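Lab notebook, design round three. We kept the backbone fixed and only want residue identities now. Task for the bench partner: fill in a sequence for the structure below.
Input structure tokens:
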């Protein structure tokens, strides 16, 4: 299956919408445990991983990796 390339403006809008939806979901989930302040930063990491995945499946040879500060924090 092939998809046409969208404009940078369209891409930025789609990424923003994705990030907001993930952040909303995480904020709700985390609020049950008192961690809602972490929702925005976790949503950003998930968004970056999703962008890396999207590039990979469309043919760009790019790694799908967590940001270095997260890797250091979890000890991988």
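Proposed sequence:
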């Amino acid at each position: 299956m092939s998809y046409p390339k969208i404009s940078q403006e369209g891409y930025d809008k789609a990424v923003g919408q994705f990030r907001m939806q993930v952040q909303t979901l995480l904020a709700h989930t985390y609020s049950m445990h008192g961690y809602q302040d972490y929702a925005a930063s976790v949503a950003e990491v998930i968004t970056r991983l999703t962008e890396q995945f999207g590039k990979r499946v469309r043919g760009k040879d790019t790694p799908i990796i967590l940001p270095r500060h997260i890797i250091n924090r979890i000890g991988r």
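Keep this in mind before ordering anything: The first helix runs from residue 8 to 31.
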